[in-house]
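Hi there, hope your week has been kind to you so far. Please have a think about how the structure follows from the sequence. I've dropped the whole record in just underneath, so have a look:

_____
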Amino acid sequence: MKAIIIAAGKGSRLEHLTTEKPKCLVEVDGKSILQHQLDAYRANDVHDIHIVKGYLHEKIDLPDITYYVNHDFENNNILHSLMHAEDAMDDCFISSYSDIIFEPDVVRRVLESEADIALAVDKDWKTQYVDRTLHTPEEAEKVVHDENGHVIHVGKRIDAHIDDVHGEYIGLFKCSGESAPLFRDYFRKATREFSGLPFIKSADFQQAFVTDLLMYMIADGVRVSCELIDGGWHEIDTLEDVDRVRAQRESDPQ
């Protein structure tokens, strides 16, 4: 099992904290967001780590990691960053956004899912937005699933009322050995068909999200499943998030 961490973006909403370092190196509770992720993966015996870098890429230089650099990160989005690591998609992998902190148990749940493609989906997602004013529920990558836990809609802008949303995709997903090459092939197919054009919910293919490719696959009959969780993670997107998560973790019982 490989882990692919998408860490190319600047994280401008963290203001001065990312002036001299990438977003993933911002410290929360005594260590960087990236180190929190590495610890969670390694606690689940995932040691083959791949990181896609971009902004201030030279600052991320940890040992025993395979690196890729998205030099055009300012002109594309998270899907294209992820696909810089497509050589790692020849077998099973788990992938995460670099601005989230998650407990090892969240990784375990996703790895143990029997689904070929499994998304970590927080069904208690609205609690993440209590007293959170700079990052609202409208910005969440919302999920609607059927009675069997198969994804119908996923993304920031979905064809469902917010009251009908079942959870939030936290930015962590797994592809099995069979579905990993399929994920890569669908990206290549979408590149041929949509380069320079709108793609799913994105105005331009270059600005596409991972959720756009997932919806593209779902529309073609590929089954994408939810691994439902109850918290155990945090997103670090704004200065408010840093303060909020630091305070929550300090107050948690040891």
In short: The helical segments are 33-42, 78-82, 104-112, 179-194, 210-219, 239-251. The chain has a mean pLDDT of 95. The radius of gyration is 17 Å. Residues 179-194 form the longest helix (16 residues).
